[in-house]
Design brief:
It is a single chain. The chain has 62 residues and is of the alpha+beta class. It has one domain: Single Sheet (Ubiquitin Ligase Nedd4, Chain: W), CATH 2.20.70.10. Helices cover 13% and strands 23% of the residues. It has a four-stranded antiparallel sheet, with no helix packed on it. It is globular and about 30 Å long. The N and C termini lie far apart (30 Å).
Length: 62
Amino acid sequence: MDELNNRPFPPVPDVTDVPRRNLNNGWKEYETEAGRTYFHNSETGKSQWIPPRFIRTPAQVQ
């Protein structure tokens, strides 16, 4: 298995990483080399596997 997918926390993007898309409130969507999506907030420095609350579907919020 890929080491990136086994990490408990998503990576912090490198300065050369290009986001897949820019979201609101400083959030950006990235993809690991293994193809796993993660989200990073450039204002707070936080990275997470799940989408920020404002873009989650109702099923993801519950």
